[in-house]
Specification:
Layout lengths: L3 H4 L13 H10 L4 E5 L5 E6 H5 L10 E4 L2 E4 L3 H11 L4 H4 L1 E2 L10 H11 L3 E6 L2 E7 H8 L4
Antiparallel strand pairs: 1-2, 2-5, 3-4, 6-7
Amino acid sequence: MLSAKDIMTRKVITATPDTEIAQAAKLLLEERINGLPVVNQAGEVVGILCQSDLIAQQKDIPLPSLFTLLDGFMPLTSLKRLDREVKKIAATKVADAMTANPVSIGPDSPIEDIAALMVDKNFHSLPVVDEGRLVGIVGKEDILRTLVGGT
């Protein structure tokens, strides 16, 4: 049975929380990758930056729906969520646009579990973490390669 360690990319291109958004976008495009693990100085995965996170910067600022109660305005959506959306749209550093604490897998995770996780949660890439440190990444393309015998 194949596992993450059998199909993962070992030379992982990463960013740090302080990486400029423009530099991260350039890496994603030039390397033709969807996800960029974000690591701290200790090599621990603290986030992941995907193309969809950068595309979110092109959205309009979501204005909360309001209703009135006793002549006061009450938001129908969370102001905390609105604050996160505004930060993501206005991000200049990876830390502001990344998804913090991403789902990761271990080197021995079976390929069937990885595929199910990707489909169920709509993930395009998953960091592979061993003893707290990034050791690889598995993308949808890695899984597809197993179907055509390219492992």
